[in-house]
């Protein structure tokens, strides 16, 4: 009977997928379906109830059941691609049932708040949970210093546009860096200076010269699992950054977007070091939770609180209460910690596979100079005479998606010919096959252009 019921459920789901029943259309009655599938009325009632729980159909009293929305075509009907380009988690890695439970609970617990404009700084109860989470990363702060944003992108946009207590106006960014930060700076026509970041880190003499002489308002950095290089600063480098910031009255915007994926218990953020009075610590939840919830959190120095309160309030009045409520419940219940550890294990395994496969398939000169020990990104550097656009097209035609790093550089800064690889939507087979195809296409580029060394790993 169970197999019969499941077969009926899949048949009705298939009718919706194929468009035989459109959104808003009434499904056949329970009696008609029981006759069609030669089963009891109770079996059809149970099938409809399960489809309703899947948010595929809904019921209207005394009217029957109706389709909510047509599902996307089944992925199995589409050719499988090797996705080295995406930076958002795969839907299959997200515990959607847990999120639905948290969403329903949030609707109950925060019903009154949904009909009001809450504190622009964020729900106080959520900020209490964020304080506990940050403490686990050795970032000791208070609820008064915590801000909840509609995604890290909003935080970066606001910080880029608002004045800072040091009265300075120029913004220093690593090159390359996260494209979203560069987009925010360009949209606001901010004065931006770039500093090169290589697999070996920063040129400290150049950094100090910028801090000393170029009126730097803040320095935006991704110290852990850099995007796109995948590398991390050492504890000594983080301490040095914090001290330089304090000495020269320059703020640090520390984008710790992959803190949950750290496996080294001694790898503390910059904010955990002496000199943290000038560090703004920013955490995204998009790589562990649903990106669509649009939630990020930051702790800021006391000197910035009034200014940021004003700019946050004028930007959106308040971050979605429902999204904040879901995150709070997810944190309190222990679901977040459990899921974050699963993602840490999963991505740590994949980046290790990428490293091992690269060492095995790529020639010695192609290996990265500093091992990428975690996170989700790595990068390939091509010779300048390689046509990156043509290479990306050839890879696409062979079912491999990669992302050129062009937009991760300032237009005024010398660009390196990089491809960013993400392991976030891959598996062991994808990585092995994808690197093999990339090597073949780079060999093709080498022979067609006569280049002896077409690439090297970062």
UniProtKB/TrEMBL annotation:
Gene3D superfamilies: Aspartate Aminotransferase, domain 1 (3.90.1150.10), Type I PLP-dependent aspartate aminotransferase-like (Major domain) (3.40.640.10), Winged helix-like DNA-binding domain superfamily/Winged helix DNA-binding domain (1.10.10.10). This is PLP-dependent aminotransferase family protein. Keywords: Aminotransferase, DNA-binding, Pyridoxal phosphate, Transcription, Transcription regulation, Transferase. GO terms for molecular function: DNA binding; DNA-binding transcription factor activity; pyridoxal phosphate binding; transaminase activity. In the C-terminal section; belongs to the class-I pyridoxal-phosphate-dependent aminotransferase family. Signal peptide: none annotated. The lineage of its organism: Bacteria, Bacillati, Bacillota, Bacilli, Bacillales. Its cofactor is pyridoxal 5'-phosphate. InterPro entries: Aminotransferase_I/II_large, HTH_trans_reg/aminotransferase, PyrdxlP-dep_Trfase, PyrdxlP-dep_Trfase_major, PyrdxlP-dep_Trfase_small, Tscrpt_reg_HTH_GntR, WH-like_DNA-bd_sf, WH_DNA-bd_sf. PROSITE patterns: HTH_GNTR. The keyword Transcription regulation applies. Residues 2-70 form the HTH gntR-type domain.
């Amino acid at each position: 009977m169970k197999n019969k019921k499941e077969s009926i459920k899949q048949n009705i789901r298939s009718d919706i997928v194929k468009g035989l029943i459109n959104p808003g259309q009434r499904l056949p009655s329970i009696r008609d379906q029981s006759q069609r599938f030669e089963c009891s009325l109770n079996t059809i009632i149970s099938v409809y109830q399960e489809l309703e729980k899947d948010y595929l159909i809904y019921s209207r009293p005394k009217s029957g059941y109706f389709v909510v929305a047509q599902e996307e075509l089944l992925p199995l009907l589409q050719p499988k691609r090797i996705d080295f380009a995406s930076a958002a988690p795969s839907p299959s890695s997200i515990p959607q049932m847990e999120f639905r439970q948290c969403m329903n609970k949030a609707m109950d617990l925060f019903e009154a708040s949904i009909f009001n404009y809450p504190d622009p700084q964020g729900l106080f109860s959520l900020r209490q949970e964020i304080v506990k989470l940050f403490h686990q990363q050795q970032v000791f702060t208070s609820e008064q210093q915590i801000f909840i944003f509609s995604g890290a992108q909003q935080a970066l946009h606001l910080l880029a546009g608002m004045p800072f207590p040091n009265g300075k106006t120029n913004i220093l960014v690593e090159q390359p860096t996260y494209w979203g930060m560069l987009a925010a700076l360009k949209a606001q026509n901010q004065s931006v200076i770039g500093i090169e970041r290589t697999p070996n880190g920063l040129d400290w003499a150049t950094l100090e010269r910028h801090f000393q002489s170029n009126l730097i308002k803040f320095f935006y950095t991704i110290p852990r699992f850099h995007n796109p290089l995948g590398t991390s600063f050492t504890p000594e480098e983080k301490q040095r950054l914090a001290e330089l910031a304090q000495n020269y009255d320059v703020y640090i915007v520390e984008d710790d977007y992959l803190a949950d994926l750290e496996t080294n218990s001694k790898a503390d953020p910059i904010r955990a070091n002496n000199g943290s009075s000038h560090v703004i610590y920013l955490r995204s939840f998009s790589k562990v939770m649903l990106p669509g919830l649009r939630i990020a959190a930051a702790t800021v120095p006391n000197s910035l609180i009034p200014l940021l309160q004003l700019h946050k309030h004028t930007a959106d009045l308040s971050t979605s209460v429902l999204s904040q409520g879901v995150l709070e419940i997810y944190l309190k219940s222990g679901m977040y910690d459990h899921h974050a550890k699963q993602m840490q294990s999963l991505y740590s395994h994949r980046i290790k596979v990428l490293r091992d496969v690269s060492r095995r398939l790529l020639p010695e000169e192609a290996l990265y100079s500093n091992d990428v020990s975690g996170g989700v990104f790595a990068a390939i550097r091509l010779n300048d005479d390689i046509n990156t656009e043509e290479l990306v097209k050839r890879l696409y035609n062979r079912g491999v998606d990669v992302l050129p790093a062009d937009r991760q550089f300032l237009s005024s800064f010398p660009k390196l010919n990089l491809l960013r690889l993400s392991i976030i939507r891959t598996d062991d087979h994808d990585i092995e096959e994808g690197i093999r195809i990339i090597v073949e296409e780079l060999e093709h580029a080498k022979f067609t252009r006569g280049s002896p060394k077409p690439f090297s790993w970062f």
